From TrEMBL:
Species, as recorded: Flammeovirga pacifica
Keyword terms of this UniProt record: Membrane, Transmembrane, Transmembrane helix
InterPro entries per the UniProt record, alphabetical: Put_HupE_UreJ
Keyword Glycosyltransferase appears in the UniProt entry: no
UniProt name for this protein: HupE / UreJ protein
Entry's transmembrane regions: 41-59, 71-89, 110-129, 144-167, 179-196
Record's signal peptide: none
Length: 197
């Protein structure tokens, strides 16, 4: 197996690894208010998150930005908590649309937040990638492959969550607001446990 495919696979495994569930929780919180009808918004949010963490993953792996790993480990659950709190204010209106799809709360703001928080998560990924790279001379190919793997893993998580969402919405009396509260509440409690555990 070439290095590219090896690191792509490692990227997928890293983002989908239940032991690294903080990043999964962030994705869950990020898409909790969305239904399958709003898939394009979900893809944009995940892409914004990927853009953010790709930048800092590259910079920190190349040792171009210094950071305190303990601080990043604290900030990651805080990003989840912030998204969860904002989700509680994004309930559906009478037309069954999330408030952030209205002009008064532009979707661009949520894309911006996903990207900014992605910068923090990228630094969380970097220590793992540095360990994998060891003393390799060129890190560009592994870095690209790892980032693509992370994105594919994120999209797989999104696809699974949206499938469950469609089943729940289609076969139960659960509303999207109920779904949002359930997913957001679970992510919020889990983030508190990570933060103070």
């Amino acid at each position: 197996m070439s290095d590219f495919w090896l690191y792509l696979q490692l990227g997928i495994e890293h983002i989908t690894d239940i032991q690294g569930h903080d990043h999964i929780l962030f994705i869950l919180a990020l898409i909790a208010t969305f239904s399958t009808k709003e898939l394009k918004y979900i893809v944009w949010l995940v892409t914004g998150f990927t853009l953010g963490h790709s930048i800092t993953l590259a910079l920190s792996t190349l040792d171009l930005i210094p950071f305190d790993p303990a601080l990043i480990e604290t900030l990651i659950p805080i990003t989840i908590l912030i998204v969860c709190i904002s989700n509680l204010f994004n309930t559906k209106d009478q037309k069954n649309q999330p408030h952030y799809l209205h002009r008064n709360i532009p979707f661009k703001r949520y894309f911006f937040e996903a990207t900014i928080f992605g910068l923090i998560h990228g630094m969380g990924f970097s220590n793992y990638l540095k360990t994998l790279l060891g003393s390799q001379e060129s890190i560009w190919e592994p870095l690209l492959a790892f980032n693509i793997g992370l994105e594919l893993g994120q999209l797989a998580i999104v696809a699974l969550v949206m499938l469950v969402n469609a089943i729940v919405m289609g076969f139960t009396a659960c509303t999207q607001r109920d779904w949002n509260i359930f997913i957001t509440g679970g992510a919020f409690i889990s983030a508190l446990i990570i933060l103070f555990g």
